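User: I'm designing a mutation panel for GntR family transcriptional regulator and want to avoid disrupting the core. Could you give me a predicted structure to guide residue selection? Please restate the sequence first so the numbering is unambiguous.

Assistant: Good idea. Sequence first, for numbering, then the predicted structure tokens:
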Amino acid sequence: MLRIDPTSPTPPYEQLRHQLIDQIGRGELAPGDKLPAVRRLALDLGLAPNTVARTYRELEAGGYVHTRGRNGTIVATPDLGGGADIAERATALTTEYVTAMLGLGLSRETVVRYLQRGIAA
């Protein structure tokens, strides 16, 4: 179940993106599953449609979903060369790292910079 915390300092689109990535990583949303329509999900969560649309665009840019116009947004098949097991492990490791970094009091932007440094190293 998706929920948005209006008191959180995290923007609603980011809360939604994180929750959907978690559901994909845990297999609750499997490759080929269709996400709710933008307007439907916006109505259900009390968000503006543009907020949900932004979340879907960012998920697509990250390779989590494919948007097929009027045919909806579909959870993508992991393309990691090792299938769903590697995708699950990669998601779990990333979530663990990000959670630890946020626990240090770092901002999301700073965590991303550290990730980029690690990739470049």
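For picking mutation sites, this is relevant: The chain has a mean pLDDT of 88. The radius of gyration is 15 Å.
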